[in-house]
Design brief:
Length: 243
């Protein structure tokens, strides 16, 4: 079992200052609401239930699932674009964090939507976000580059009859995850409802395009550039549009 647990003691490094505010805002009737859902029963988080298998065949549980969404850009059919600088920290266990406004009005002429799992470079440095406990807990250690965790996906997995921990942590600029959603014929529905629903498939973090194997690729990804690259590339495929 390849294990990078030697990095775990530095997870607790805390930010002490603040240079800019976190840009998330509450949903508003006049702006586009984003709702983040998941393809599993959220009651299983932290209860120890092994509820699904990875592509490599490991049953997994989830004890923590947190990630940033940011850098939103919408392309219209005429080629013009609109953007939102909203940054939202999603915690699968926090219902309020999973619904937020992009501070733009939905249009029926939308063609594609782009956003990041993670943070753009100008925000991914120590003290860039508001000095909240939530942001502090997502800090990426300064000796390893500073900034913030883009993803924390943690839990347990079974390997035969044995049980081990895993922590899929992604951070630093080369591993930010760009996502593109093709709105196609759903733009009209989105415009009418004023809401877009993004569903995350947990299995995709371990499946596409790379079959992630805890034994071969590591059950702790922090500091492992190969593991983070695989996860970041898989992360481009974890969301589907559910409108």
């Amino acid at each position: 079992m390849r294990n990078l647990i030697i990095f775990l003691p530095v997870f607790g490094l805390v930010l002490l200052g603040c240079n800019s505010d976190r840009n998330s805002v509450e949903p508003d009737d006049s702006t586009l609401t984003v709702y983040v859902s998941f393809n599993f029963d959220l009651s299983h988080i932290a209860d120890g239930t092994f509820f699904t298998k990875t592509e490599a065949g490991y049953p997994i549980s989830i004890s923590r699932l947190q990630f940033y969404l940011s850098d939103w850009l919408v392309e219209r059919k005429d080629g013009s674009t609109i953007n939102s600088d909203i940054v939202s920290l999603i915690d699968a266990q926090d219902e309020d964090s999973r619904r937020f406004s992009l501070d733009i009005e939905a249009g029926s002429d939308w063609e594609t939507m782009h956003f990041l799992i993670g943070l753009p470079t100008y925000l991914n440095h120590t003290n860039a976000l508001e000095n909240t406990l939530e942001n502090q807990n997502m800090a990426w250690p300064d000796p390893m580059g500073g900034g913030y965790h883009f993803l924390k996906l943690e839990g347990r997995f079974m390997d035969g009859e044995d049980e081990y921990g895993y922590a899929m942590h992604i951070g630093t600029d080369p591993y930010v995850i760009p996502v593109q959603m093709h709105l196609e014929d759903k733009a009209e529905v989105i415009s009418q409802s004023g809401e877009i629903t993004l569903e995350m498939s947990i299995k995709e973090w371990f499946a596409n395009p790379h079959t992630y194997d805890f034994n071969q690729d590591g059950n702790y990804s922090m500091g492992d550039t190969s593991a983070m690259l695989m996860l970041a590339q898989n992360g481009q495929h974890v969301f589907t549009l559910k409108n």
